TrEMBL record, chains A, B:
Pfam families linked to this entry: TetR_C_11 (PF16859), TetR_N (PF00440)
Gene Ontology MF terms: DNA-binding transcription factor activity; transcription cis-regulatory region binding
Annotated protein name in UniProt: Regulatory protein TetR
Lineage top rank: taxon: Bacteria
Organism of provenance: Streptomyces pratensis (strain ATCC 33331 / IAF-45CD)
Cross-referenced InterPro entries: Homeodomain-like_sf, HTH-type_TetR-like_transc_reg, HTH_TetR, Tet_transcr_reg_TetR-rel_C_sf, TetR_C
SUPFAM superfamilies given in the database record: Homeodomain-like, Tetracyclin repressor-like, C-terminal domain
Keyword set, alphabetical order: DNA-binding, Transcription, Transcription regulation
Length: 209, 209
């Protein structure tokens, strides 16, 4: 039994929100973002379209909220299983191993056919729409990047990471190559690639100094 | 006088193509990609819309061709001025300096308000449309990435770059952070950032080994 009793109306709202999220994700996967409409989402979720308009200004906002909800549930699951702490990056004292673990998991998430189409649609909308892009970064992307910053700072304290490295720049050397390969589909996004990015970023490219 | 005389009809075609490219780039900048139509491009370029449909299957294809034409002209200018050779990356023997030069220029290009909107529109289309994305990568992006591969290989031969570095992975550590910051607008894309990416990538993040 839940320690906090939720009033029925709030529980109904939660059920509706979840149904709307799932309908939006599924529709974008099936017919594409351009042909997904608020009407279509409402019909599939079994709610009136006014319910959607009351909570969200656009289909992009529904999609962003669906991903935020998914991220919150994943973090809660990680907490419940005791691993990683708030979805953070593990610190075994071996930075390369810890980074490869999380970046391989990122590869698997990006390649997951269940979420690939809506993730691509939301990212592409953010590329052309600065307001949505800012919401996407602030609420979803930057908090994830800060988990790497925290791990890299701990590495600086323990002497694993060079003291003169800017952790916020370093995180982009690790994450951006995977995002770039996935977004632009230049080459296959694999675990081997995640490992190679970590190895190259940690050791550096230069033969001198 | 041009050494190769172009027949009148071919010269007219070139003029029309250029006018269509410019109309497409300008329209996307002014009204956005979604509201740019083949009809609108034709009206602005002063051609019939059948002329456009004869050469291109979609507005995305017009846009891609406009960027290819721009890249070809930039490469021709670089050749004519004797610098860089085929738009390649200079090799002064100082890899950090050479990379900072070209990555700063990339920052300026990405931040150029004259091309930002169509570049974003084309990239976003490639994110959601695998066929267009593959054309974008094959014709425009990968040839640019290969210029970095060539410079990094030369660096391996001269002993500047570690022999165990995979140049095709290394190029993504250099280019992807800039693309990521620009596409997702996480933080400002500046010359100082380009320099920091080069320094972090060359030296590596690790304090050990």
């Amino acid at each position: 039994m839940s320690p906090h009793r939720t009033p029925d109306s709030s529980r109904r709202s939660d059920r509706s929100r979840r149904a709307i999220h799932e309908a939006a994700l599924a529709l974008v996967g099936e017919v594409g973002y351009a042909r997904t409409t608020i009407e279509g989402i409402a019909a599939r979720a079994g709610v009136g379209k006014q319910t959607i308009y009351r909570w969200w200004p656009s289909k992009a906002a529904v999609l962003l909220d669906a991903f935020l909800d998914m991220a919150a549930r994943q973090a809660a699951e990680a907490d419940a299983s005791g691993g990683g702490g708030e979805g953070g990056i593990p610190d075994t004292g071996d930075l390369a191993t810890d980074l490869k673990l999380v970046l391989r998991a990122t590869v698997d998430e990006l390649n997951d056919p269940a979420t690939e189409a809506p993730t691509r649609a939301l990212t592409a909308e953010g590329v052309v729409d600065p307001v949505l892009g800012a919401q996407f970064v602030e609420s979803l992307l930057e908090p994830q990047l800060q988990l790497y910053v925290t791990r890299l700072r701990a590495g600086q304290e323990s002497g694993e990471v060079r003291a003169d490295v800017d952790p916020r720049v370093a995180v982009e050397l690790l994450v951006a190559p995977l995002a770039h390969r996935w977004l632009l589909r230049t080459l296959p996004l694999t675990h081997a690639y995640a490992d190679a990015v970590v190895d190259h970023a940690l050791r550096g490219l230069s033969a001198r100094g």
